[in-house]
Amino acid sequence: MDWLKNLVKSLPLDTISEYIAELVIWWSHLVKDVPDNDLPFLAYVGASILVLLLLIFVVRVIPRPIGGMLWVLAVAVLLTPGDTLTGAGQIAPAVAGVAHSALMGDMSGAISAFLPILAVFIVLLFVGAIWQILRGVIEVNITKAKEKTRIQEQKRLLEEADKNAQKS
C-alpha cells in the first residue's frame, strides 16, 4: 500500500482541483446554448475526456507497458459507441449496454455488447505496438546520427591536431 500512498503524495491535487474548477466554468459557458437533447452526449464525452486526462497522471507512475494498457482500456471502455437498446438507432456508450444486460441477467447480451469494446481495445493495443516499434526505430536512428556526428567531429579534431603537430 506504500505505492498508493506515494502515488497520492506525488499527485498535485491542489493544482488538479483548480484546473477542474476552471474546466467546469469553461464547460458551463460552452454548453449554455446547446439543445437539451444533445447535452447528455456532450457531458458524457466531456467527462470521458476529463477522466482520460486525469488518468495520464496515474499512468505516469505505473510502469510504462502496464500504464499504456490501462489507458488504452479506459479509452476503449469510455469511448466505444454502442446502441441505446431503444431501437431508435441512437448512440450510447457500449459500456452502458454491457451494464444493462448484466443487471438484467442477460449474459449473452452482455457479451455481445462487450464485443465492440474488446475490438476497440485490441485495435488500440495494435496501434500502440506499432507506435512503440516506430518510436524505437526513430530513437535508434537518432542515436546513430548523433554518434556519427560525434565521431566525425573527433576525426576532424584529430586531423587538425595532426596538421598543427606537422607545422611545429
From TrEMBL:
It comes from Moraxella equi. Keywords: Membrane, Transmembrane, Transmembrane helix. This is Uncharacterized protein. The chain crosses the membrane at residues 41-62, 69-91, 111-134. It comes from the Bacteria.
